[in-house]
Each structure stands twice: as C-alpha cells, then as structure tokens.
Amino acid sequence: MVNTRITGRRDRRLTPEDLAALRDSIHEQRLFREEQVRQLTAAPPRTDPDPRASAARTEVRTEPAASARMVLADVEAALRRLAEGRYGHCHLCRRPIDRAHLMIVPQARYCARCRQVREVAR
User: Fold this and answer.
1) Which SUPFAM superfamilies does the UniProt entry name for this protein (predicted)?
2) What is this structure's pTM?
C-alpha cells in the first residue's frame, strides 16, 4: 500500500513526513492483516457430513492463514522498529533501505543489495 501523502521525491532519505505516512500505512496493513487472519482461521460452519471434504477445506485455508500470519509478524516488527528509531535500516548491513522501496514495501527489512544476496542464496 502506497500512501497518497508520500511525494515522488527522488531523495533516498526518509523525512519526518515520510515516516508519518509510512507509520499510517503500516498501521493500515496491520488492521487488514489482523482481520485477514481472523477470517482465515475462523472455524467454517459444519454443513458437510463428508469428513474428507471438511479436511480438504481446512487444508486449503491453512496455507493462506500461515502466509497472512507471517506478513502480520513483518508488519508488527516494522512498527517496533519505528518505535525504537531503527526503522529504514537493513537488518544485515545496517545501511539505509532505499526510500522508494520502503514506499512500496513499508515493512521491508533489507536493502536492495542484501535482498539480492538472500535471493541468490535460496
């Protein structure tokens, strides 16, 4: 989610206004992901007497719920980094994460170089 208050500046540094807009965006993502997890983990109504069909539905819901929980954890970690004043710096090399990337993925943990290294290592 890109917040509309974020301008198209080319500067890579985050301004106080950028941080405020990113904080708002991350809070919105948190609310969305919390609701998504709630919906995905809610027990479906028991209308099908076939236990195999019920098991299949549960399996189909498990993967998206796990993915939503992982994204929610990333979002909450980004909020902690914001509160601690560590937001916007790479977890590996501690260099600033490019402003443009944070505008697209506000919960990003790695700079472009470290992201590439991690992708190659997979």
Assistant:
1) Glucocorticoid receptor-like (DNA-binding domain) (SSF57716)
2) 0.73
